[in-house]
């Protein structure tokens, strides 16, 4: 199997690696998890490329910080937040001199991680006649949609209609038969939820949840 083949297992492994014993989140593995998800989206077809392009550009912004001269401050989400806030590197109320801070960029992925969690939980508990498009859009309306303007919500709605059915979806996840996928989802979801919650608490504590 080639290295760029998507496997659900890899997403699980990267998100697992992203948490250290102090419950800090490594940016490197967080974006590696997203990179895996981009591979997955690309395998679903071109309708999703406007979504994966946005994710790729956000991964790139964070990678640039990580490999840049202040890279040591970007090792964990916790150190990134501290560093950017202490050095006034975040536009807090409107976009100005720091339109692409690490904090606001990661916040977009963070919100999307909530969508992922809600969607995968629906998929895990779905039945044969459940529709992926409905699961996706229900999860979307509960999470990301409130942060997106009308035009994006419409485009996303169109993309959802192009989603493959549940059986194909399970196959593309590439983790064995349905029962095995469901088991792996059951294992992955608490991890994703934990990473999400740690980030959410950190952002809430620092009043960063509405960054422009
Ligand atoms: C499996 C099917 C994939 C469904 C994806 C459902 C989520 C739809 C998200 C739509 C994003 C539309 C394109 C760009 C939007 C950007 O404006 C926003 C805000 O960023 P800003 O403009 O402020 O810089 N970007 C986002 O909200 C990030 C969206 C990430 C979407 C990740 C999808 C994850 C897919 C995982 C596949 C299982």
UniProtKB/TrEMBL annotation:
Its lineage reads: Eukaryota, Metazoa, Chordata, Craniata, Vertebrata
Where in or outside the cell it occurs: the entry states: Cell membrane; Cytoplasm, Cytosol; Endosome membrane; Golgi apparatus, trans-Golgi network membrane
The Glycolipid transfer protein domain covers 26-174
Q: Which GO terms describe its cellular component?
A: cytosol; endosome membrane; Golgi apparatus; nuclear outer membrane; plasma membrane
- What protein name applies here? Ceramide-1-phosphate transfer protein
A Pfam match is GLTP
Query: Can you name one GO molecular function term for this protein?
Result: ceramide 1-phosphate transfer activity
Q: What reaction does this catalyse? A: N-(hexadecanoyl)-sphing-4-enine-1-phosphate(in) = N-(hexadecanoyl)-sphing-4-enine-1-phosphate(out); N-(9Z-octadecenoyl)-sphing-4-enine-1-phosphate(in) = N-(9Z-octadecenoyl)-sphing-4-enine-1-phosphate(out)
């Amino acid at each position: 199997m080639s290295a760029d083949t998507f496997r659900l297992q890899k997403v699980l492994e990267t998100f697992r690696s992203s948490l250290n014993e102090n419950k800090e989140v490594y940016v490197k593995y967080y974006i590696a998890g997203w990179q895996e998800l981009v591979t997955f989206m690309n395998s679903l077809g071109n309708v999703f490329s406007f979504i994966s392009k946005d994710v790729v550009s956000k991964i790139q912004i964070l990678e640039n910080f990580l490999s840049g001269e202040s890279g040591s401050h970007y090792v964990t989400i916790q150190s990134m937040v501290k560093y950017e806030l202490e050095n006034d590197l975040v536009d807090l109320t409107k976009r100005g001199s720091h339109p692409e801070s690490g904090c606001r960029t990661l916040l977009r992925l963070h919100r999307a991680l909530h969508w992922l969690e809600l969607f995968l939980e629906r998929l895990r508990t779905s039945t044969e006649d459940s529709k992926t498009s409905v699961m996706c859009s229900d999860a979307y309306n509960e999470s990301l949609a409130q942060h997106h303007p009308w035009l994006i919500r419409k485009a996303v709605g169109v993309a959802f209609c192009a989603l493959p059915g549940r059986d194909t979806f399970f196959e593309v996840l590439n983790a064995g038969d349905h029962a095995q996928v469901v088991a792996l989802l059951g294992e992955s979801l608490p991890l994703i939820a934990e990473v999400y919650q740690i980030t959410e608490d950190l952002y809430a504590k620092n009043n960063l949840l509405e960054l422009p």
